[in-house]
Please model this.
Amino acid sequence: MERRSTSTEFAPAAADPAEGDLLARARSGDLIAFEEIVGRYQRRVYGVAYRIVRRHDIADDVAQETFIRAHRALGTFDVARPFGPWICRIAANLAINHVRSPQFREEELPEGHAETPAPSGGNPLARVLDREARAVLDAAMERLPAEQRAVFALRVVEELSYREIAETLDISIGTVMSRLSRAREKLREALLPYLRVTTLRAGGGEP
Amino acid sequence: MSAHVRERLGEYLDGEISGEERAAVSQHLRECSECRRFLEELGAVDDAARSLPAEAPEGYFDTFAPRVRARLRAGSRRAFRPPLWSLAVAAALLLAVITPLTLKEHTAPAPTSFDERAAAPPAPRDRPSSPDAQPVGQAVPRATEPSGGAAAGAFAGPPAVNVTEARSEVALQEAKDVAEPRRKKQGPPPASRNVAPAPPEQKTAPAPAAPALTAKAQDLEADATRYTGAAPASTLSSCEGCQASPPPQAAVADRADARASAVSAPSAEGGPSALAKARRAPGVVALSGGPAGSDRLSAAGEARYRMLRTRTPATAAEARELRLEWRAFAESILGQAHADDARVAAIEVAVQAFRFSASDEDRATAAADARAYLDRSDAPQAERVKALLETLSAAP
Model:
């Protein structure tokens, strides 16, 4: 199985007619087809979950549950629509619910994000950002309310539009905007010392 | 003007303003270095955030799809569960009512000590459920009370032998289902709880009374279907200030759910049901000489603990997988017996993973786990963990 191929992982679903076929098969109960879909979207779903809950074990729970729910609701999914945003919605909502659960709060431990090892390189920005800046940003991210983190992750990482985020989280576009700008402001403040010293635009979208 | 523009730079960055407005902001940016810098900083924050890892441990995605599949398979069998459950429960209740009558004719002698022991567990185990053991499921004891008396009465009656049989029959029937703990989502059927005492995960289930059960099921269905199509604004109620509304609770249950399946998923076909039997028949566990004395941990927890103990990883991937399971298990039994052992076991297998792979990532994971443990306020096995940590740094 080639479910680990990263090229398909982030491909927009609608553009892929084969995916429509896969989804249709999965819908009619073909578990193999569904597994193929899981393979395609697992990293993305896990990423959404992780960026909101920020703990591997919980992100794992959320990611699994996301696919279980998706499978259950597949019958109502419009195959003509892109699958990615749809499943990311499920993941984002489940992740937020997890973060809000009393049990999560109770278990919130400082060691949480220490579990994720830093990437071993490759990302240009990872090289620019020194360890400390990364830790500072990470801590600032941790302090954000989950709602702001979710909006931020959906916008910045998943690149959903404000409207899509509003629909996903069932909030108004105004709320999306205010949460996003609050999140950005807090993160910017935290990173400010590093932003001013180094030029962080290294990996950024310069023409 | 500047402050006004500044507020909109995020939207500008996101491409969410267009036309004249966008042109106006662009114009302003050409003239105002402060806003330009602000925009750059926003962009830098975004870039930096994107570069933060959201990576799972190595090998995690190799086993992800099979685990989901296992849960889905378990879930599809669930379709038959409600009738099975009601049958089992009905049968148990019927037996409980009928056997005393029939046995009276035989005038059974006083119950042997075996009988007593077999029949006894349900009572204490039904309620150990003290608030500290069950932080979330406050509803559990309440839900148990009404019918609890009746069932306890039935079990405590003279014909303990028959009752024991009835119980194990129920346990067998239930065994099929336990590998798929999805039931918890609907809350355990109240009557059955009296028959077969609670598994530890129960603490997370809201345990609604019978009528609430269907409501919950509907709720979940709605939950599953509402993420469709255009997702009308009014249906996604779970996201805005709903601390007290059902979704968070459901999420908690889901989580326990996910964990429990994570544990049962890798076992062979026979595995889950054997485990299930143990879970559902605590009396059996107690009699077979298990550490029934560990009052806090239920039989289900014991069974799971022992099952995890028997597993010896042969590869780094297996060790990593086992680490996750130990961690999940430790979390599911917070504050109970073995929770600390489970935490330490997770560290041990993390170290094993590193032994197998010799990769820096595994080393970092194991070291982080160990340090996190040492940071705990309660770390009774700190010496052992320190030793483990030292072996990590000593390794080449």
About this structure: DSSP finds eleven helices and no strands in chain A. Chain A touches chain B through 95 residues (CB under 8 Å).
